[in-house]
């Protein structure tokens, strides 16, 4: 029971009783016991407030209002218990012609049957009449004594009848006028709308009308529609009832209408239910003569097809676009209400999904919508999404196909109307195979014939007319592809088919049989043939999701085109900011939330110009050359992602003017290794801040030294940095947002015991950087940004298993770890794996990484000046000293002492090898440390010290330019050495 409905005279909602159940349950149980034994309760519990709800807009007359009863809380609990018991037996005491409130029957069943009857009459060119009856004030006028008599005839016991009598006869009403009760009065007939018992009691009363019509058909006073189908099967359909909506089918003969008028008169006299002839109508099918005289006989008006029954089209052609005019009109009326209100985009999305998209679902569940109508309705949704309530003509920033994809695939989760229609129609295919002994299935089976042991109907042949079921059958193929059969109580002989390659009855016995045993063997075969595999009935199982049962949502997901895009499934930010971030990322960046090979490709999707520096996509020098020497003017960059190592880039060029700039990888080892790095970082910030139109994002690894270097720039730019370790830290008092989230990834093939490899990845860093800067620019809470970033799908980890040799040693390439932080995070992931760690290299220089059209002129105090071959100076790089410094100053490798203690040993190599070895030894390294001249000697040394089950990991912790062009070249050489040394 819903707990938030309006309370009755006692003032208690259902939520109150649910919340305080432990406190009041004993008194309530005593009330139930008293009612069970004495068949009564205090009359004061059955008092009711009456409120009048308008049935339509601009209601003026009293008849335009519907009285709704607000019941007391205790009576509502009692009535709900009785209603739950009554609905369990309702299907056994009412006929199959009634489809309301009976488990397993749906309102759509009656509409399907009615349309198929009309289709049968039209295709066979038979004449018929449809009588649509309207019962006036149905709930309010039914006779109580009539109901009790019906309960008695149906076999309900005296105790039950006394319970029901007390519930309906002791009610007292008070009309609320401006919210104030006006005194109580009793009633002598009718059921309360709002009482849980009322719908079921009314259905029992309408069963009398159904029984009268059936008896008239049996005795020949009325002749309904006699459906004849394939296989010489027949079925009579004379009437359908859904609560007070009654439709009667009969042949076009005057005497049949005379009999029907007497039946309605008798029913009105007995039940108190009056037929409103002014709203009832007689609809002729085919060329019916003397229709005016027949209408006079019944006393109603003449109708025509197409009409409406239960809110759905009746007798409309399957391709008629006009049958959807009512749906479109309801959507436009709803939009007209919102037109006068300001609704945010997130609010519009919610209204589309909850209201606009739900308006056509009822009709979509039975009729196929044409593509023209679907486009019209989706246009209303699109215009409302982008143009607001006034439907202004605005640019649709994102393709509707993307909008309609699932949230985790980069869309908004709005369902496509045509696919939803297919899923809803597919449910009928499932119901025909799954449900048993129901009138609509029997009617369809008779009309079209059945195949496959009654699991499905034959193909619908002949010309289209109303064609409801014929349209539904178009969804049969994909539905049957997702349905499997579960064998039940069939015998072995029924399911054994030797023609299908199952073989014959060729049983082998342990010994040869005697002649006198042959009869016993034959009896055994006969017994086995009739043996039932299971006592359960045969059934079907839906394998498309939903635990074996068809679900529209699962079916819709099957029909949606496969999508490889990735998007955060859940975000810990408000829906408004989620929509803003979604729109910016998809419309501005046009990023489809898939991580390509390079960040340049990711951020320059669909023609967006992006500058990417460092080893993010293209080499730093190559990017600068492209920017400076491009023969034709390039458009202004929208986004710049620059990875800074120990280079200084100066590009005084008008083409480099991004709206958002992101700087990556200002790591602590850079700051500590180079004395001038502090000034270098400040210069870098100022340089890019002068080149950007709006905001600048600086995203290096967080460290105190860098914080101090950035302090004076806090008032000038938005700063953020990303750390390599899990956890979230936000400095709320400062303008600096510290987003410490794991820029890590684990690749499935990298499995070494309990290995959980962690480490940064430049592609991922760039994506995180871009989203962080955008989020800060929009004012999104930093905790929400970091939570969203954590849910992004990271690309494969930088570590790769190169080889597993015959000695049980696994060789791992982590040559992309070009700084201490990267090596540190990698070692943390290798904590459970005993390994030999190779460290070393050289502080970065530029030898071997310069474009061929440039010439190296000179080194001057660490400053590399480069000139074009024509002599014009283009740009310069600033770097630290070429040779490794022997300074006692910290170089960052001391932080590796702690994670290294879990491993076998360390091998240092290259120019930086001696310094790394000295640093580790001075800080108390507890494992052996060997020194090698170069990478080849290091690999040979590792081969000699590694034991079975160990891993040898190349994780240099510094640059590669001592003997290699770049880290990729170093990794390639490492792999060659691994295989050659074996």
From TrEMBL:
One Pfam family, short name: Mur_ligase_M
CDD domains, A to Z: RT_nLTR_like
Pathway field: Cell wall biogenesis; peptidoglycan biosynthesis
InterPro entries named among the record's database cross-references: DNA/RNA_pol_sf, Mur-like_cat_sf, Mur_ligase_C_dom_sf, Mur_ligase_cen, MurD, RT_dom
The keyword Ligase belongs to this UniProt entry's keyword annotation: yes
Cytoplasm found in the keyword field: yes
Residue stretches making up the Reverse transcriptase domain: 34-314
PANTHER family per record: UDP-N-ACETYLMURAMOYLALANINE--D-GLUTAMATE LIGASE (PTHR43692)
Protein name per Swiss-Prot or TrEMBL: LINE-1 retrotransposable element ORF2 protein
Higher taxonomy: Eukaryota, Viridiplantae, Streptophyta, Embryophyta, Tracheophyta
Gene assigned in the entry: LORF2_141
